[in-house]
Every structure is written in C-alpha cells, then in structure tokens.
Amino acid sequence: MSKSDEKPTRGDDATHETKPRTDGKPRTDEKPHADEKRNASETPGADASEAKPAKHDAQRSRAAEDGTEGNPLREGMPEERNAAPAALVIFGASGDLTRRKLLPAVYNLALSRLLPGGFAVVGVARRDKPDFADSMREAVDKYSRRPLEDAVWSDLARGISYVKGDFDDDATYEALAKELDRLDQERGTRKSRVFYLAVPPDQVTAIVRGLSKSKLISPSGHDDDDRFERVVVEKPFGEDLPSARDLNRGLSAHLSESQIYRIDHYLGKETVQNLLVLRFGNTIFEPLWTRQHIERVELTVAEDIGVEGRGKFYEKVGITRDIVQNHALQLLTLVAMEPPSSWDADAVRDEKVKVLRALRPITGKAVLDHTVRAQYAAGVVRGEKVPGYREEPDVAKDSLTETYVALRAHVDNWRWSGVPFTLRTGKRLARRVAEVVLHFKPLPHGLFRGRDGDQPNALVMRLQPDEGISLRFAAKVPGSGMALRGVTMDFRYGAAFGSSTPEAYERLLLDVLRGDATLFTRSDEVEAQWRFIDPIFAGWAAEHAKVATYPAGSWGPEAADALVAPDRWRRP
Length: 572
Prior knowledge:
glucose-6-phosphate dehydrogenase activity; 15 helices; Dihydrodipicolinate Reductase, domain 2
C-alpha cells in the first residue's frame, strides 16, 4: 500500500469540555442543512422549477468529474438510499485516521448527497481543539478524493462539535451526553448514535464501559432505522486468540453483537466486494469455481513502503498480525466461501466462518514446509536506496519480526479439497499491488500441447492499483500455420465506471449508518482467524524457524518459491 492507502494512526486517549463552533455565528442563525433545503423544494407548494436546474447542473458537474457522464455502464443503476438521521461520535478525533480517512469520507458522502439532513459529527479526544471544525476542513481539503465545495462543507460544518476529555473520566461522558442531547434538538439526530472508536485496542473496553455507565449504549439498545446505538471498532481485534476473546467479552458485556461493527477497511474496497459479484452474479464463472477446474489459488498483498517510522509498533505486531490475520484471510474467505442463501449480513458471514473453520491447521514441523517468513534488507525501491528493516528507527538490531510471510494453506471441504491457496504479503516489495489469481488446470487432452502459447488459463482479479479483471487464454496467431499466443481480455474499473472510485471508508461508514453489517467482521470470525494464526507462531518458536532476508525492491525471499513449485509466483 502507498502512504495514502496505509491505515493512519489513531487518536490519543481522550478534562471534559464541550467546544461550540468558533465561527462567531449564534446557532439560532444556522442555515438549513443541504438535505433540509432539498426536501423543502420537494414538498407540495414549493417552486420546483427554480430548484431543479441547479440540482441537475450540480449532478451533471459531478458526473463529468467522476467520468460517469454518458457512460452506458452506469445506465439503469439505482440511486443509493440515504441513511437515517444520526450523530457520528469519533473517539480519538485528534488522530490521523480521523483527519486522513474519516472526515474526508464523511465529506464525500455529503457531496454525494448520501448523508441525512439530521446529521452531526462530535469529536472526542484529550487535546484541547477549539478549532476542531477548521482543522477538519483543512484535512478534507488535503485528503479528499474530490475538491472541497464551500457550500457542502458549510452545511456539514454546522453540525461539527468537539468534547475534550479523558476516556476514563465519567465527566467526559456526561459532557458528551449533554452535547448529544443538544444535537437531537438542534440537528434532529433523533437519539441515534454511531460511536467510532479510532483508538488503540487497549482503550476500547474503557470507552465502551464509559458509554454504558452513562446510558449512551445498552445491550438491549435500539437498533433499527428509527433509532440505534452502534459501536465501530478498528483492527487489530486482539493480538492472539485469548486477547481476542477478552476483547469480545468486554464488548458483549455492554452491547449485543448486532450493535458491534468490527471494521476491516480492505472489505470496503470496491474491487474486493466485486469478488462476490464476479462469483455469484455470473453464470460463466461459478460452475468453474471448484477443485475440478482450478489448480491453485494465489493471493498477493504487496507493499513497496517500509514501516514508515512505525518501528516500535511493528516490532510488536509483524506482518502476520498486521495483514495475514485480517486482510489476507478475509480475501481467502471471499474466494472460497459457498454461495450464501441471501445477501443478508449473517448469511454471508456464516459462509465465511465455515471457510475459516475448514482451514487445515499449520502446526509443529509443518510450518517449515508450509510457511516462509523474512525481513527486508537494504535495497533499491523506485530508484532510491532504502535501509533494511533492522536499520529502521526503534527496531532491534537482532529483531526476528517478519516483514514478509508466504504460506500454503488448504481448505478441507468438498469444493476445495486438494487445491492449495498460496498467500504472500510483504513490505518493501517490488511494487504496491494486491490481487487474487485463479490458475486453472490444463486440459485433460490438449490438442496443442507443447506449442508456444499453450498455457493454462488464469483469471486475475486486481484489487489495487489499476483495479480490474483479466482473463488469460490462448489464441491463434494470424497466418497459415497453427501458432498460439497467450492473450488477455481486460476489464478496468476506471474505464467502465469513472476514475473517482469511492474510498473504502465511505462505503463502510454509510453501511454502519444504514445498519448493514455484511462487510464487517463478526466475533466468531475474529476468533476463527486467530485459531488458524496462533499455531503458526507457536510452530515458528518451537521449530526455531529462521527468518530469511530479501533485498528491498525484490519480490521476496527465494525460499518462498518452494511453496508454489513446480510453478512460479506471478509477477504482477
């Protein structure tokens, strides 16, 4: 992932004090929210002839900007429905995640007219931030995928406020409750709240306990379109199975599972969601998605950046916990799951859990044959010399923390028995890329076997960058002979749907507001993921598995090639 794609750091632990808007305007002079003005023009008696041209001009302008104006693939697509009125409360609001991802996502939802008229944002953190709304405007201007429009931001900013306080101080939650009551009256948020915990994992339980004690949440709380109390938790969801269970118990003591949204931003990527559409929405693919036709499945999540000054953090985590336990295993479940009975959140997640439970454990000596871990050494990335991992700040000179891991997994069920799932992820690799590749079996009786171009078919699903799908197949070279050449048939998201694809956090925030948990991780999913990962760490320790090295800017250690032999890893 690039710097802009890597998940930002979260806010500090949050001295209570409600900070009103500092623009000098009394709240009684507030203009109506953008959606309120729109609704007024649509009521009986309103002069719609005056409102429509401006509305349509804005829609045409944004369609042209997104590259979707006149795009035939956009025709007939239904408009997204708006979310219900609510207040979004961000704990850790002074952190990078809020500035770089959350507020830009909120702004782009407002720009796309997907936020309700009754909407507000409350930041909560320890630092004094009298200029919170102004600093958020600067962040949106810098990090938004679309230009900042003053009118849209002004409407949004009127609902932005800030509460200063420590997360373990009862007074913080008392001040927050008063601010939310005010917003219910002035902004029409109807006592519906989303509490986004953009904080380190060790602060989650304290915040949930404080919210419960102040009666801002309860396990029997409302959870429907009219009124709801929802809590969003960022990864990591524990550091092993016991800590994940502790976290789940801490959450379930104050919330029902339907109120908990464990967010993995990878699942918000349009191309990741498209894996399900590709499989279950197309007759030509689903019948081939079995061990009878697929030789192996290859998953790559590669980054060309290093630890980016987060050496102290990475020494505690490593790439297995950072990427494999969540992003990579989630991709594997989407590729391997059985068709759900419906697009209901639990129906989808039930099938994902079945895949995780069917993963063959990698234990003991098996780690030596089925896994490779490594660290990047000094090398060259994008033409620049970069240091090795052990030369990074706050990294031990004798560190055994892995920055690369490759493994060969098996899903022991009827669909996938005998099909290896080879997975690799690492930092300081040759390029930033994420993709899933289905390598199909060769024909049982190949008429053109041995000729150039006679290679098995492959379906490549590129998740980032250059998002799209490619199908490799053989074609006859024009001429008198029967020469073959491998060719590809390409689909590119940018060409079909416009270049301004919504960010993952836009989709996920909107889903929380709508109460759709399909793309969020359930408690049993989290525990099943750790149940697969923990034995790998135990095996590495017991077998003293060595940590290989690879030059920065390469595709990883040579030892990883053995996991796919006699084949080779694809070079994206």
